[in-house]
Structures are given as structure tokens and as C-alpha cells.
Design goal:
alpha+beta, CRISPR type III-associated protein domain-containing protein, CRISPR-assoc_prot_TM1795, single chain, 11 strands, 27% helix, 6 helices
């Protein structure tokens, strides 16, 4: 069996409960779920049939003919410390006790095959995503060690685990103009870096202010009489550069409502991103 260990450090507060619903911890199912999510996000060129087959081959399925996943995930960490913080830092509201930044976590992947593919998927989801509450607004970001975090490096990861439908234009990764999705779901459309901040609290406050100012169903909503439930199609993670400064990585996903008559207001999405950039 092949093994690959990726050492990480928590960059922003992480609020994620364990199996008992109370103890703060990062568990393998959360990591595996995020790996599935970002693998699907960069494979919008696949038909629904191919997407399901390839995803099942990589991550397993309840179908007895396919069986369980080939990947095993083990997490090791020091005793994780907590801090006092706010889930809405721009308002100093909703007091919580999340896992503190600067905590070391090791994630070990084990598989009889495709270990490099799994490693690439995990690195991508660590860079672009997050875990726990408010993860799409900068919380729960983990930075992998020994991985270069530049636009070119993210592009290379996406290419290795997905398609060749992306290109680098200036300081961002975008879908090529001739890209045609096989069906509508939250596939990845763009990745761009934002401006640096001196600390993570300043950046989370900035993201929170933007989220509050441009509150609209196109940026995520709970189910109501007029709208579908929608996880935000704009995903903001936080990384730390070699100079010790913090910067956002903004990933734009396709806005996919269940109701085909619902149309997103892209102006709200663009204004939200511009306020963080």
C-alpha cells in the first residue's frame, strides 16, 4: 500500500464538530467530502455518466459492484487549542470557540493505487477550500506545507486531476471560452488571488463586511418560499505567504439553482469579489 503524508497548519479559526457534535476536531469524512467536491468542481467537462463513474472509481460508492473507496485517511495532530472569536467578526457577533490558527495537523493518505492523484486532489482542496462553519468566507483554512501556492501551481494541480479546459490569463485561472458544460452543477469557473492583509483577523473582517454589504440569494441562501437553498458559489479561502502576510484565494463556481427559471444576479457576485480583491 502506498502512503502520502501532507502536513498542514491551520491558518484561520476552524469550527468543526466531531462525531459527538460537540468536540472540535477534523475528521476523515470531512476531508473525503471536500476531496469529492473539488474533484467534481474541476471536471465540468464530463458527462453525468462519466462523472459518476470516475468519482465512484476514486472515492467508492454504495453500489456493491463498485465497492468501497480505495483511499484511507488518517489524521494526526497536537492537542488542538481553542480561542475566543466571533463567527461574524465584522460585527463582533456570534461568539464561538473555534480551533486556533497555527496548529499543526498531518493528513496521511493510504491507497493501493492512484496515491499521487489523491495527493493532488487533497492539496487542491486545502488551497481552494476550507472546513467547518463559514468555510466559504475564509474560516477553517488549512495550508499544506511544502506546496507552492502560486497561480501556476494551482493551475498545474487542476490540470493533473481534471481537464485541459482552463487557462491562465494574467493573475487568474479561467475557463476557456469554448468550454461547454455537460450539465449544470457547481463547476469551477475562475480562481484569483486577492490583496494581502497583515493578519487573518483583518482579512476575515474584510470578507465579513463584503458578505454583509452584498447579501443576496446569488451569494448563497437558505431555502425559502422564493428561493432554493444554495451554498455560496463564491468560495474564499485564506493562505499565508512567505512574508507572513495573509491573502484570500477567491474561487468562483457556477451558480446552479434547482429551479431553471431562477437567474443569479452576477453584479452582486462581482461587487462582493471586488470588495475583497
Amino acid at each position: 500500500m502506498e502512503k502520502e503524508t501532507i502536513k498542514c497548519k491551520t491558518i484561520t479559526p476552524l469550527l468543526l464538530a466531531g462525531a459527538d457534535g460537540r468536540t472540535l476536531e477534523l475528521r476523515p469524512p470531512s476531508i473525503k467530502g471536500m476531496m469529492r467536491f473539488w474533484w467534481r468542481a474541476v471536471n465540468g467537462h464530463l458527462s453525468l455518466e462519466d462523472l459518476k463513474k470516475q468519482e465512484s472509481d476514486l472515492f467508492g460508492t454504495s453500489n456493491e459492484k463498485v465497492g468501497k473507496s480505495n483511499i484511507r485517511i488518517r489524521i494526526q495532530s497536537e492537542e488542538l487549542k481553542k480561542i475566543d472569536y466571533f463567527l461574524l467578526p465584522h460585527r463582533n457577533a456570534a461568539h464561538v470557540n473555534p480551533i486556533s490558527p497555527d496548529q499543526n495537523i498531518s493528513i496521511t493518505l493510504s491507497s493501493y493505487s492512484n496515491i499521487q492523484v489523491y495527493s493532488d486532489i487533497l492539496n487542491l482542496c486545502l488551497i481552494l477550500g476550507g472546513f467547518g462553519k463559514r468555510s466559504r468566507r475564509g474560516f477553517g483554512s488549512l495550508e499544506p506545507e511544502n506546496v507552492n501556492i502560486e497561480i501556476e501551481d494551482i493551475f498545474e494541480l487542476m490540470t493533473r486531476i481534471g481537464s485541459k479546459n482552463y487557462s491562465i490569463i494574467g493573475d487568474r485561472i479561467v475557463l476557456k471560452k469554448n468550454f461547454t458544460p455537460k450539465y449544470q452543477y457547481p463547476f469551477l469557473k475562475e480562481v484569483i488571488f486577492g490583496e494581502e492583509c497583515t493578519d487573518w483577523d483583518e482579512l476575515l473582517t474584510k470578507i465579513g463586511k463584503a458578505s454583509s454589504k452584498y447579501c443576496n440569494y446569488s451569494l448563497g441562501s437558505i431555502s425559502s418560499r422564493n428561493t432554493d437553498r444554495l451554498a455560496s458559489p463564491i468560495y474564499v479561502s485564506v493562505m499565508k505567504n512567505s512574508n507572513g502576510r495573509y491573502f484570500p484565494i477567491i474561487s468562483t463556481l457556477n451558480t446552479a439553482f434547482k429551479d431553471p427559471d431562477m437567474k443569479p444576479k452576477y453584479s452582486f457576485q462581482e461587487n462582493f469579489k471586488a470588495m475583497i480583491l
